[in-house]
Design brief:
CATH superfamily: RutC-like
InterPro entries: RutC-like_sf (IPR035959), YjgF/YER057c/UK114 (IPR006175)
Radius of gyration: 14 Å
Shape: globular
Number of helices: 3
Protein name: RidA family protein
Order of helices and strands: EHEEHEHEE
Organism: Paracoccus zhejiangensis
CATH architecture: 2-Layer Sandwich
Strand content: 25-35%
Helix content: 25-40%
CATH class: Alpha Beta
């Protein structure tokens, strides 16, 4: 069985995707950027905002940050990644996932970080 979770984000309908998909005991959370009007200007606040959206999707899926096994961080400027490290270490705590950071362009230049995770859904 496959279950789709929508967060109602602006790009979900425009592009044709959902925030997360739960299948085979796992939840796959799509790349997530900050929300808000206006979107926070600095990378740490954007990271915090994206993690909040991801956290809600994980909770709806029956999972949590302690179940995340894989995370990918995408930033247009790799120099902005280090300021996020304390927040990420706090978020994942003693359960750090495998991680990758990619420097790349994002969908809109106002975004400073995009985060994608895969987590287990405990039975």
């Amino acid at each position: 069985m496959i279950r789709r979770i929508s967060s109602g984000g602006v790009y979900e309908q425009k592009i044709g995707y959902c925030r997360a998909v739960v299948a085979n005991g796992m939840v796959h959370v799509a790349g997530t950027v900050a929300t808000g009007d206006p979107v926070p200007g600095n990378v740490v606040d954007q990271c915090r905002s994206a993690l909040a959206v991801i956290g809600r999707a994980l909770t709806e899926a029956g999972s949590g940050f302690d179940q995340v096994i894989r995370v990918t961080y995408m930033l247009p400027d790799r120099a902005e990644f280090e300021p996020c490290w304390p927040l990420l270490a706090e978020t994942f705590g003693p359960n750090p996932p495998a991680a990758t950071m990619i420097e790349c362009g994002l969908i809109d230049p106002k975004y400073r970080i995009e985060i994608e995770v895969t987590a287990l859904v405990p039975k």
